[in-house]
Design goal:
With 163 residues, this protein is an all-beta fold. The protein has a single domain (2-160), classed as Ureidoglycolate hydrolase (Jelly Rolls), CATH 2.60.120.480. Helices cover 2% and strands 46% of the residues. Strands 2, 9, 10, 12 and 13 form a 5-stranded mixed β-sheet that branches. Strand 4 and strand 5 (36-38) form a beta hairpin.
Length: 163
Amino acid sequence: MTTLRPLPLTPEAFAPFGLVIQYPGGTGRTINSGSAQRVDLTADLQLQTAGGTAALALFRARARVFPQSLTMLERHALGSQSFIPLGQRRFVIVVAPAGAAPSAADVHAFITNGEQGITLLPGVWHHALLAVDAGDFVVIERAARAVDCDEVNLAQPLTLLLT
């Protein structure tokens, strides 16, 4: 089995797969009569393809036990998918580039600092939510009549280690 160790999540390292949701620094723009700063992270979550609409969900995740065996990935070809922890909740995001079914060599893992969320670009292969810390996550994704989820079994299982 191939071993996979997550790297710290940074916007630069994660850019080929999507967006890191965190305060990017700077001042943003003043709103609400000066009581808040607004920083726009993305102008389009790409949720309306083929008649899709934005869906807001709450996932209550159990903490995973590591090492974790990874045998399959999924993708949503028609829309992005965002995971945002409520409170301090670390999670691991396992991803591979959009396109043909990935091999073990294509797979990357990142661990959040507990205060970061992510938005996956449409078509990016990824594993289901891998919570390090149990708790609630807001999920924003595309909803439509037809389910937009392709799954692929990895030819070679991966072992995800945290240390």
